[in-house]
Write a sequence for this structure.
């Protein structure tokens, strides 16, 4: 549809003789006092107004936004581009390839299935830390990565040639979010429309929840499930309610001793406590200008951990300096400055801005911190880390605290490794110390602080403990270059911190195995091992199957914990070792000063590094170029592939959808508690031979050593269905004291314990629909499309919880699963539901009339005939979501749209 322009906003911006078509915000009353993020949404609506999906009233609603009201106005946001990583990106391209075939089957032209917005994928989630602690680790891990993932990579190379406007950044380049801020992000986009060059704000949605990192550059973007990302690629706008915006005032500057990581962990704790789920957070005030861009990006990155949709910083001189540093063209920098100033998007601390809620942080009050042992918002001041560990250890290790007079349970175990090294390990041992993840590896201040700490530690004669698996996985090659230029690399390597790969490693569960002897000792003695990583995610069971407690920390603290070797350590009072003269060495003796860090940054980072690092970025190395790549508009699926298989979503699909029906005779597949994450629902890490996924691969001739991870297998629905609800730490309340992917199978005599997958298959045979019961914050964590896809393919028709995480709720609808909430103040316990009942859901058929009921009647009948009924809130929040549900899912909806046109 053509643009309507009811407000006469279309105009021309002249930037040093270059003319751009723009949509001026000052054409809309109220625009100037809007928060920055809502101005970006307003421009989006002005530019895409078509009189049907996006109307004059929608534009007015944003201009006249009432900060105090609850969100109730639905708008359609059209992102400028789509960003993907390979775990979630592979299934996206698998689905697009499958849609091409389905369009063909429905009599349409398969080449019409193509990204309509630029789509870029960075392959960064597949490298695993198999080799570590030596100079050959990087090369060896890359080699193994290609051996494991050759099938997937061939498929992606096919996609690179078959689809228009789809680009792939090959493996070994960096982490998607760092590549985004250093290279892909435009800040202001330009595109030729009807022969005219148009300028508009860069916005994006990404298939990774940490897409919000780019908010630090003034780019509005957030994580969506792979399901919505596919729809956005195919020109479907993202349906959303105009959000509440929380103004977060920053003042002061970071004190010596504290880092950007500590700031982020503090902000995460504050915002989690305040409650920002579904809201935008925006930073403002005089203090903003004092925050370097890398720190802004670090803060934006953690948005999913505090729960907000986005965490925005406005554009200012700091933004322009960063664009120049990272090698953006002067023409682009000029456009960003002129456009931001013209549109009122330039940071002006004196302007009165409307916000829904207000928070404040004095950066000088931030102290060194870690977070753990299982959630990023559980911040612990470093000074009380030992004390807190001693409280938490009782949840992970048996035994009384005082029987050995050391204040904690103890099981000391002697270990001798393959190279003959002997040592004793105990509960709390740091088994992994990893500088990893997009959060911190893109921030030179903390990366160089770690390297300076390493130099001081080496000079004092300190060494990492022999049981610690050490690694550095930078987010881009620029990090290696400034490490080398600063001369600090040898000190990191002396402590075992060799570069192991460029990608999202330990943080996503790609930590690789521990040394065999250490792993065996941990398992045989049920030791509560810990991991310390500079990441953003530390959920249970995520980092490594042998590790029970996971802690987030800044890169210098990761090294400090490798030196300490245990979480049972007080850095103020416990010494890290002795120097040559026999003097005890404490953390304060090796901690770098802010002046040292700044001087090292100034002398070792320049714009040429970024230019070199991203030269020919889409071409790949010789390994990538040598891949045998299939050709053609539709993909030739290999029957024997265990990585890439054609999914069953469109089998038997008709041109018009069947009416939706009520749910009757449903059984509970799982009854779950609070804070069940998408890691619990759809794991990303490794899996064992006796699991349903392992059994499937073994039966298809795959050796145990070649299993790879769940994440890398996301292009194969057979593995992923079997991995759904298979996390080793998930607790299904239908079973007493059992952890892992098990349930009671009510389709069998006596309802025996069974694997979730096996039970679901039995229910499918018996034609029994399924429901899942959950608690608060169901589906928090990464934007896992497979958490929804797997749920749907297991036969789950409805998920009933106390509350949902934003992305997972919309993903469930995108797969045709009903998201229902218990009435306010109620849950399974207060309603007396044990999960052994038979459930029915009435009122679903109302959706066939084009209306969306607010509530649906749920009735649970117990085995003794006792009935519980309640009105569950139906969390289909927008008309667009109702359309998706009526069609059986978002992909079916889009497919019918393409075929019909």
């Amino acid at each position: 549809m053509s643009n309507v322009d009811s407000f006469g906003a279309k105009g021309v911006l002249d930037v040093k003789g270059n003319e751009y078509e723009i949509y001026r915000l000052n054409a809309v009353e109220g625009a100037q006092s809007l928060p920055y993020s809502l101005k970006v949404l307003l421009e989006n609506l002005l530019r895409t107004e078509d009189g049907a999906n996006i109307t004059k009233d929608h534009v007015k609603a944003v201009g006249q936004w009432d900060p105090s009201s609850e969100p109730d106005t639905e708008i359609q946001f059209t992102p400028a581009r789509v960003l993907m990583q390979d775990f979630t990106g592979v299934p996206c391209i698998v689905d697009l390839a499958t849609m091409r075939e389905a369009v063909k089957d429905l009599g349409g032209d398969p080449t019409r299935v193509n990204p309509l917005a630029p789509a870029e994928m960075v392959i960064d989630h597949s490298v695993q830390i198999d080799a570590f602690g030596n100079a050959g680790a990087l090369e060896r891990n890359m080699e193994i990565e290609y051996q494991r993932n050759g099938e997937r990579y061939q498929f992606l190379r096919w996609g690179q040639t078959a689809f228009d406007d789809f680009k792939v950044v090959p493996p070994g380049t960096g982490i998607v979010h760092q590549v985004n801020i250093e290279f892909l992000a435009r800040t202001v986009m330009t595109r030729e429309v009807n022969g005219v060059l148009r300028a508009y704000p860069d916005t994006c949605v990404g298939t990774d929840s940490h897409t919000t990192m780019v908010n630090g550059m003034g780019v509005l973007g957030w994580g969506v499930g792979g399901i919505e990302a596919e729809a956005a690629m195919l020109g479907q706008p993202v349906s959303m309610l105009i959000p509440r915006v929380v103004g977060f005032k920053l003042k002061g500057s970071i004190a010596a001793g504290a880092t950007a990581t500590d700031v982020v962990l503090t902000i995460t704790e504050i915002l989690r406590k305040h409650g920002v789920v579904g809201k935008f957070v925006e930073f403002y005030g005089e203090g903003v200008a004092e925050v370097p861009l890398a720190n802004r990006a670090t803060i934006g990155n953690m948005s999913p951990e505090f729960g907000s949709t986005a965490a925005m910083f406005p554009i200012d001189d700091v933004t322009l300096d960063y664009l120049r540093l990272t090698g953006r063209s002067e023409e682009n920098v000029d456009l960003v400055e002129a456009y931001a100033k013209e549109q009122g998007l330039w940071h002006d601390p004196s302007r009165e801005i409307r916000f829904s809620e207000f928070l404040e942080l004095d950066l000088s009050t931030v102290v060194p911190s870690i977070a753990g042992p299982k959630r990023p918002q559980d911040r612990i001041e470093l000074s009380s880390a030992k004390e807190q560990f001693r409280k938490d250890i009782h949840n992970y290790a048996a035994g009384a605290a005082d029987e050995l007079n050391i204040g904690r349970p103890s099981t000391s175990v002697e270990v001798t490794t393959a190279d003959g090294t002997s040592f004793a390990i105990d509960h709390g041992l740091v088994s992994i110390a990893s500088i990893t993840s997009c959060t911190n590896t893109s921030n030179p201040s903390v990366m160089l602080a770690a390297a300076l700490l390493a130099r001081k530690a080496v000079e004092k004669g300190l060494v990492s403990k022999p049981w610690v698996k050490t690694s550095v996985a930078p987010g881009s090659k620029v990090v290696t270059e400034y490490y080398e230029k600063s001369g600090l690399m040898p000190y990191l390597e002396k402590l075992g911190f060799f570069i192991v790969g460029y990608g999202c490693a330990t943080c996503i569960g790609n930590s690789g195995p521990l040394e065999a002897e250490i792993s065996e000792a941990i398992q045989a003695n049920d030791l509560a091992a810990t991991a310390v990583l500079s990441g953003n995610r530390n959920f249970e069971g995520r980092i490594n199957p042998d590790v029970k407690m996971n802690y987030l920390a800044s890169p210098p603290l990761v090294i400090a914990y490798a030196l300490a070797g245990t979480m049972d350590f007080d850095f103020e009072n416990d010494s890290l070792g002795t120097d040559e003269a026999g003097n005890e060495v404490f953390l304060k003796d090796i901690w770098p000063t802010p002046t040292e860090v700044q001087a090292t940054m100034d002398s070792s980072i320049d714009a040429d590094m970024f230019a070199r690092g991203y030269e020919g970025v889409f071409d790949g190395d010789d390994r990538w170029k040598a891949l045998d790549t299939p050709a053609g508009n539709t993909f030739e699926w290999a029957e024997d592939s265990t990585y890439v298989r054609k999914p069953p979503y469109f089998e038997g699909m008709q041109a018009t959808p069947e009416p939706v029906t009520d749910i009757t005779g449903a059984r509970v597949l799982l009854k779950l508690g609070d804070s069940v994450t998408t890691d619990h629902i759809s794991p990303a890490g490794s899996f064992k031979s006796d699991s349903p996924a392992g059994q499937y691969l073994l039966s298809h001739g795959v050796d145990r050593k070649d299993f790879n991870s769940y994440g890398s297998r996301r292009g194969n629905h057979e593995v992923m269905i079997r991995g759904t609800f298979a996390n080793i730490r998930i607790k299904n309340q239908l079973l007493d004291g059992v952890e892992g992917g098990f349930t009671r199978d009510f389709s069998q005599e006596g309802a025996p314990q069974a694997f979730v997958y096996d039970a679901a298959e039995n229910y499918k045979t018996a034609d029994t629909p399924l429901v899942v019961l959950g608690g608060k914050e169901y589906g928090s964590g990464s934007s896992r499309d497979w958490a929804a896809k797997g749920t749907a393919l297991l036969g789950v028709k409805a998920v009933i919880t106390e509350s949902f995480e934003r992305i997972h709720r919309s993903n469930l609808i995108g797969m045709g699963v009903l998201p229902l909430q218990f009435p306010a103040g109620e849950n399974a316990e207060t309603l007396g539901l044990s999960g052994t009942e038979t459930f029915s859901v009435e009122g679903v058929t109302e959706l066939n009339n084009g209306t969306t009921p607010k509530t649906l009647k749920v009735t649970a009948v117990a085995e003794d005939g006792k009935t519980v009924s309640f009105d569950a809130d139906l969390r289909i929040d927008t008309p667009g979501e109702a359309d998706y549900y009526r069609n059986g899912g978002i992909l079916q909806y889009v497919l019918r749209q393409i075929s019909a046109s």
DSSP finds 30 helices and 34 strands in the chain.
